[in-house]
Amino acid sequence: MAEDVSANNHASQKLGFTLDVPFPSEGEAVIALNSLSPDPEPRKGGITKELKAVGNVLSVQWTADEARILRVSVGSFLDHLALVLETMEAFGPPVPQ
Q1: How far, in Å, CA of 20 to CA of 58, rounded?
Q2: Phi, psi values for residue 14, rounded to 5°
Q3: Closest Cα to residue 74, out of 63, 84, 83?
């Protein structure tokens, strides 16, 4: 859910959104992270996106100046995440090395 991350300064209010996606294993979370990390935000300003894998959870945090920009970025990310999940399901779990 979007939240106001700047409660005291209304002139520079930022919106934030955090998404945690659990995976069956840490390896699968890292595969998803590596698949989704190369896609930088197309805009130069107005939004930031940080991805990290902690254990078996992929965590994504956005900060944006406008709700519209945040909505588009999260929607696009969810489309890419769905594709990564479908691909991982089609190929099965990672082979231990």
Answers
A1: 6
A2: -120, 150
A3: 63
Amino acid letter at 79?
D
For residue 58, list its beta bridge partners: 21, 53
Largest pairwise CA distance in the chain: 52
- When comparing pLDDT for 22 and 37, which is higher? 22
DSSP string, 50-65: EEEEETTEEEEEEEES
pLDDT digits (tens, 9 = 90+) for 34-91: 999 966 666 677 899 999 999 999 999 999 999 999 999 999 999 999 999 999 999 9
- Contact between 73 and 24 under an 8 Å Cβ cutoff? The reply is no
